[in-house]
Structure formats: C-alpha cells, structure tokens
Write a structure and sequence with these properties.
Structural class: alpha/beta
Mean pLDDT: 92
CATH architecture of the largest domain: Alpha-Beta Complex
Order of helices and strands: EHEHEHEEHEHHEHHHEEHEHHHH
Radius of gyration: 21 Å
Low-confidence stretches: none
CATH class of the largest domain: Alpha Beta
Helix content: 40-55%
Strand content: 5-15%
Largest sheet: 7 strands, mixed
Shape: globular
Strand order of the largest sheet: 3-2-1-4-7-6-8
Distance between the termini: 29 Å
Length: 351
C-alpha cells in the first residue's frame, strides 16, 4: 500500500484547527497505513510545532511529519484573503513544494471522521486531475464571478467545487503549469473573484475536477440541520472557525468536545470568542426585523426592475422567516444532540 500523503497549510492563528484536523485524520486512518504529513508553515511558533510533533508521535513510526516553510509574498498581487493575508493561496504551491505524485489537501477547519486512505487510493476519472465536493453555497462559476466567467468564455452554470478537501494529481498539475497559470489568473482578475485560491482552481480546472460524494466535505451548517449525530464524514467549518468564535449548534459542541479529548481545549474566554457571542446575540435579536425589512426591500427592487436583487432579498426573507418559525424545534433537537456529543469518546489522550 502506498503511503498516504496529507497536506495542510497553517499559521499560528489557525494552529488549534490544524491540531484537531491532524488528530482526527490520524485517529480514523486505516490501522498500519503509513502517513506522510506535510504542513505548509506560514508562521507557526516553535512551541506549537512541538505540540503537533508530540501528537504525531502518539500514532507511532508509521506517521512522518514535516513542516514546509512557505511565503505568501508571491501572491501579493492577488485579492487579499481571510485574516487579511495571502496564506489561503499557498495550497496552489503544492505541486512545487511536494515531491510526490499525489496528495490529499485538507483545510485546517475540518474534523475527519472517516478513513482518508480510501480517498487517497481513489482512481480519478479519465481527464480529471483533481477530486473535490461540489460547493453547497456557491453553486456555479457565475455565482463566484460573472465577470470572470464571461471574460474566460466559460458557462455561467458550470459546476463549482469547494477546495477545503481535495485529492490532487500533482504530477498532472505540474505538467499543466498550474502554478504559473494560477498566478497569472489571480493577478489579472484581482478584485473580481470571490474565493481566492478556490476561484483559481475552479476557473482554471473547469471540466477537469472529479466529483466526490458529500461525505468527503460536509459543511458544519448541514451537520447542524441533521436530526441525529451521524458522523462518518469530513466535517468542514466553512462559515466560522470554531476555536475563534461560537456558532451555536451540535457542530460547535462537537469541535469543542473533540478538542478537549485531543488535549487542546477551546479558549472560550478569548476576546475574539466573546466578541462572536455578542455578534450572535445581535443577529438573533435582529432576526424579526429582517423578516419584515427584507420582503419590503424585495418589493422595492422589483418595482425598479432589479429582478436579481429582488430575488436575493426574497430568498433572505424566507430564510429568516423559517429561522424564527423553526427556532423552538431546532433548539430542542440541538439540545438533545449536544447532550449526546458531550458523552462521546474519541480515544485521544492529551499530549
């Protein structure tokens, strides 16, 4: 069996997520399967590196860890990314910095509850050089950027994928000069694409992406909508890093429970975490107002002929109406599921 290559990219701010993502990925890996773990280092402290190294040592000699220094300065002409940095773009450099034929890439804001060796061994369809799950919020190329879509003469309804979990054929990406093409794309269209490296991947590799089932990249909000705590997936916290802020629901409880078991508990007293709770209170407090204001805004836009805006506000109004209407049953289900999660064990001793 070939060694499973797992790649991450992180800085110090995202280290708690990296720690939990690595712990979960190794915990659910097939027993005895060798793992080559590469972390693109965008500014991780020596203390954090030591903590991660001790975690990896618990899984035996079959796991190898390497920190790969990277600089995001090459992307300075691109649209500024999350955290007002360009670190998110560094996964584009994987074909250059990894000397292997293929690799799985994982965002730091995931928890893995299935065997990644199954994904690593996947045979890609003919003509495909990357595998990913369709994005659950941005459904098409046009939803990312109609300007870029038209400029590149691509179909507006072309399939769109989330880059948080990918199986990458690095040999083919090297042959296609993917890094050079990405840099040209990011600089040429700076300010027009919405999702940084993910935009480059989707626009440049259109029709070359193998479709993966949802289980390989399930957004946390979908997990919150479940009626039970079925895991068996790669859970992706797409809307909020759970160690930096709170999004109430089973997914948040699950992350905090897993982090505690792994030995790196979430600091709920951190300023950013407290700020997120205040923002959530404001959001809930404004929900009734939104159910009234958004339909009115939709009507105004329809009168002035802005059908796109009218449809967007109508969709938002429906969301907030359902949010309020379903609040009692949602709280009841979330409370039951959270109690179940609080009793879960993941067989992860503190480092």
């Amino acid at each position: 069996m070939k060694t499973v290559v797992l790649a991450f990219a992180s800085n110090e701010r995202y280290f708690p997520g990296l720690f939990c993502a690595v712990a979960s990925a190794l915990r659910y890996m097939a027993m005895g399967r060798a793992v080559d773990l590469r972390v693109l280092d965008g500014g991780i402290s020596q203390t954090s590196k030591s903590i991660l190294s001790r975690l990896v040592e618990r899984f035996g000699k079959s796991v190898r860890l390497e920190f790969v220094p990277v600089s995001d300065s090459i992307f300075r002409g691109a649209t500024l990314g999350p955290g007002r940095s360009h670190l998110a773009y560094c996964r584009i450099l994987l074909p250059r910095v990894l000397d292997v034929p293929r690799s799985i890439y994982l965002d730091c804001d995931v928890l893995v509850f299935r065997d990644l060796s199954e994904l690593f061994d996947l045979e890609l369809s003919s003509g495909k050089i990357l595998a990913a799950v369709g994005d659950s919020e941005t459904l098409s190329l046009g939803d990312d950027s109609q300007i870029v879509t038209d400029g590149m003469k691509l179909p507006s309804q072309g399939a769109y994928f989330n880059s948080g979990v990918m199986l990458m054929n690095l040999d083919e990406l090297r042959r296609e000069n993917f890094i050079e093409r990405s840099l040209e794309f990011l600089n040429a269209w700076s300010g027009h694409y919405r999702f940084w490296d993910q935009s480059a991947i989707n626009f440049l590799l259109h029709r070359q992406i193998h479709v993966l089932p949802d289980d390989w990249n399930r957004p946390a909000w979908k997990f919150d909508e479940q009626l039970e705590n079925k895991l068996d997936c790669v859970l992706h916290y797409t809307n909020s890093a759970p160690w930096l802020g709170e999004t109430p629901g089973p997914a948040q409880v699950l992350f905090e429970r897993f982090a505690t078991e792994a030995g790196l508990s979430v600091n709920r007293d951190a300023p950013a975490f407290k700020r997120s709770r205040r923002q959530r209170l404001w959001q809930n407090g404004l929900a009734p107002l939104r159910t009234l204001a958004f339909p009115a805004a939709s009507l105004v836009y329809r009168i002035v002929g802005r059908k796109d805006k009218a449809a967007a506000y109508r969709k938002a109004a429906r969301y907030w109406f359902d949010y309020i209407r379903n609040a009692p049953s949602r709280r009841r289900v979330h409370r039951q599921r959270s109690q179940q999660i609080d009793s879960m064990k993941f067989n992860l001793a503190a480092p």
